Amino acid sequence: MKRERALQVVLVLVGLFYCFCGYILFDDLWHARWLSGHSDVMPMFLSINTALGVCLLVAVKQPAKHRLMIACGAWVSLAHGFTMTIMSAQAVAHGMHRKDSPQDIVIFVAIGVTLLALLPAKQASPAGGARMNCFGATTWEALR
After folding, report:
1. What is the DSSP string of 74-116?
2. What is the pLDDT of residues 122-131, one digit of tens each?
3. Total structural domains in the chain?
4. Which sign does the torsion angle of CA 89, 91, 97, 101 carry?
5. pTM: predicted TM-score of the whole model, two decimal places
């Protein structure tokens, strides 16, 4: 029970963190800031993180039912952290420095590792191979 509660707290914090990307996205688009820096990747990245944040907030109430979404959030965060690690290493190799490194790497890897560590156990499927529909009834019950 403590593990599920810890997961719910982490989902709220990470979900709000990613939803905050929506504010940054709106501000960038409203003021066309992405044009001045020729950074057309940033708005796309922010829009994906915003959507992920909403999905993680939806998963707070019943984390076990949203296991795949939580795992997706974890792997997306880890992929982002590893990508930033490679970019930072390449920047150093070329005598440059990324302005957000290493803070962004640590944050996203910590999010990914925490979500994976608290990921709910896989639920057993109902007996007889029957599947659950969106209303919680097995397909056999729904056919009667």
Report:
1. HHHHHHHHHHHHHHHHHHHHTT---TTTTHHHHHHHHHHHHHH
2. 877 665 555 6
3. 1
4. negative
5. 0.77
